[in-house]
Predict the structure of Allantoinase.
Amino acid sequence: MSYDLVIKNGTIVTHDRIFRGDIGIKNGKIMEVSEEILIEGSSDNTIDAAGHHIIPGLIDTHVHFNEPGRTEWEGILSGSKSLAASGVTTFFDMPLNSNPPTVNKSGFVAKQEQAEEKSVIDYRLWGGLVPENVSALEELVQCGVIGFKAFMSPSGIDDFHHSDDVTLFKGMNEIARLNSILAVHAESTVITEQLANQKQQEGKITARDFCESRPIISEMEAVRRILSYAEATGCKLHIVHASSSKVVRLVTEAKRRGVDVTVETCPHYLSLTVDDITELGPIAKCCPPLRDQEEVEELWISLANGEIDVIGSDHSPAPPSMKTMTDGNIFKAWGGISGAQSTLSILLEEGYWKRNIPLQKIVEITSTNPAKRFGLYPSKGTISAGADADFSIVNLHENFQLKKEDLFYRHPHSPYIGKSFRGKNVMALVKGTIVFKDGEIIPKEKVKTN
Ligand SMILES: NC(=O)N[C@H]1NC(=O)NC1=O
Ligand SMILES: [Zn+2]
Ligand SMILES: [Zn+2]
């Protein structure tokens, strides 16, 4: 059999296997994975991956690219380039921070047009659940949303309202009927608003004050409440950005009771602490906030135990003017970390190298589980015949220090600038096409393998 492309001599990693092999690709799909593929004639292009690991392209389930409407904050082109550069081959864009938000068909179509034109990788779109749109959920499912996203506390964006309990309950009944899934930002409005007001009235406006104003108990309260709605409605539930293993444990217990629920955490909760936001300021501000080192270590234990299903970057960028300190008050800065380009680096440096997290586990939480949870498996999330030819080719031994110039973001700020990492995505392929190689994005029209 003749292929469009053969990747030879690499170490292939899936969620359950690690082995040396060749991969034959035709029409964007994996046709064959075997010990050795003999090249017939000269028509086969080859990539020699000797010394490198080939993993299923990462699926970033949680990004805010802000286009259309707030493209000056990021954009689908710059955002998707940053993902390609780091081995992510599919992203799910959140329904908010873009304007119009993705809360009805016209909002969906407006974003899809931009994404079709501009994304350098594969993508899907989240729909939103807001108090105003329960009747539009069905048309969004028909549009092909990957699921719905709701906030239990204010989102920071005026055009995307958070859901009160009645909206959540009604919405979840509807989403269950539509056999879709609800992803939830779970923090308690009551607790976070009261504490934030109190802190600021008392003039307590440091990074630590901000973190203390959104305590773990506020996440736990919201998670318990939304789990009870999931139990009552039968709605599939996904908790995004759990900042603590205490939150993860609530999900584990619910799974044991038979609730159809999964949980995501983000690279920043696995690598940064309150000390980092104290030092870096608003660049490291996010909601829920960073926790202490003990929590970081506990979260790694939860991850190693298989209690964390998915890693999403929650890339939520904003212009530098919104990520600086105003009046010495960190409460006023934008909450959101630019991290889309660093997920794999953090998991390799902090997980694989420092904490012995197996590569298969990293593949599972960055690709296989997201694909399974959101209905893309086995087209995505694995390396086997029939799947999309989406890969990250990784050099585990390449050391680098992240520089501002390396970032593809519209606004190249990141809490990880200056940090050293071991392990790098050296090439990314989407449906058999190289999209990133040797530090550069390959423009669509110039794709060649050799
Ligand atoms: N609107 C928005 O992107 N909010 C995100 N930022 C953040 O730090 N947490 C979020 O939910
Ligand atoms: Zn959120
Ligand atoms: Zn988010």
